[in-house]
Amino acid sequence: MIRRIMGIETEYGLTCFSPHVDEVKTAEEVAQLLFRPVVQKSHSTNLFLPNGGRLYLDVGAHPEYATAECDNVRDLIAQDRAGDMLFSEMVRDANEELAREGSQAQIHLFKNNSDSHGHSYGCHENYLVRRSRNFRAHISSMIPFYVTRQIVCGAGNIYVNENGEAHYEFSARADQMFDAISAASTRTRPMVNTRDEPHADSDHYRRMHVIVGDSNMSQITTALKVVMTDLILMMFDAGGELPDLSLKDPVDAIRVVSKDMSGKTPLEGSSSSYCALDIQRIIYEKTLSFLKEKGYEADFSDDYKYFIDLWERVLVGVENENWQSISAEIDWAAKYFLLHRYKERSLREWNDPAILRLNLAYHDVTSAGLRASMEKQGLLKTFVDADKIEEATRVPPQTTRAVLRGAFIDKAWKTRKDYVTDWMNLRLLEAKGTRSILLKDPFATKDENFEELMREMDQK
Question: Which residues contact 71 (CB under 8 A, 6 or more apart)?
C-alpha cells in the first residue's frame, strides 16, 4: 500500500457552568485560565509538544489540537485521542484551581461543531498528496463524496429551526458549509481548502485540507472517514478516476443530505440525479473494484479490510433503516439511540433542554462526558486501547518526521534550551547565534543535521 502522511486538527467548544450568576465567565476568560500553564511554560498559547503534535488557542477562544504527522490509521487515532486526553487534563487542573478559589464553576470542553449561539468550529483532515496538475480536478470529483459522506461518518445533530421545531439529522457541520472548494477557510468555509501549504517539500507535495467533516467521538468513525478518503486517493495515485457525479449545487445538497435520514432524497446533478446512498455506493464500488484490479487488495491490512467492510455495512444499514446494526461503531447512530432511549422514557421532544444537555454530554471530552462509560459498556467500540492513547500524549509516531521534532522538543525542555519550532523547522536559540535545520521530508525519521543539532544541545 502507498504510504501517506495524514493528520487531524480539532477545534473544541469551551464553556463554564456555574449555579451562581456572578461566577459566569466569558469564553475568553475561561480560555485564559485553561491555557495559563501553557503560557507559563512557553510564554505563548501556541505550543508544539514532545509527542510531535501542536496544542494552541485558536481565534474565537477555541482550544485546538493538531496531531503529529502519521502514516497509519492506528497512530492517527491514538494521536487524535491524545489531544482529547491532554485537554481533559488541562480542564481538570483549571477546575481544581477554580475550586481552590472557592468557585463552584465547572469548565467543560466539547468535541462538537457548533454552540448555542450558532458559532461553528471544525475538525480538519489533512492528506499529503503528490504535486500533480490533476490536483484540482481530483478534488472537484470528490465533492459529491464529501457532500454525502456524512451518512456514513456524521456525528449526528439536533437541528432546531427558527420556530423551535427540532429533528435529528446526520451532521452538525453540514449547515456551516458555504462553498465547495476555496483557498479561504473561514470567510467562505469550503468543504475542501486549496491553500497551497504542504508543510513539506513544495516541489513534490501538496496537502489536501478537508474541513467539511464532523468532529467524531467514536474512534471507529474517525478512522473510517480517514480510510475512505485514503482509498480514493490511493486510486488516484494508481491512475484511476471517479465517475462524473457532479452536483448542480453542492452547498444546498449537503444540507438536504444531512436532514434526510433515509439517504434517498434525489440530488440534482449536472447530468443525472442521484441520492446520497447512490453516490456513496457508486464511489465505494468504483474505488474498490479499481484497487482490486490493480492488485492492491492483497496488501490491505486487516484494519483496512475491517473499514472497507464497515463502509458497506453502514450503507446497507442506512438503506434498510437498520441503524442498530451500526450503532456501536458510527457516531450518528450511537448518539441517536442514546438520545432516543432517553426521549422515549422521559416523554420529551428533541428540543427539550434535557435532551439538548444529553446531546452536549455525548461530546464532552472531560471526565463529565459520556464517552468513557459508553466505551466501557460496549455502546461505542474502540480501535486503539487506553495505553496506546496515553503513550501518544508523550511519544510521537515513530515512522514519520514527528519523531525528530518530538525528540528535539523533549531535549530542549530537559536541557532548558531556548528554541523555536514549526512543522518543518527546528531552531536552537543561543547567544552565539541561531542553529536551524529544515525537515522537508515528512517521511524521514533520520537526518544528519538533526543528529548534530542534538549533540550540540547536550553541550553545556
Answer: 3, 4, 5, 6, 397, 399, 400, 443
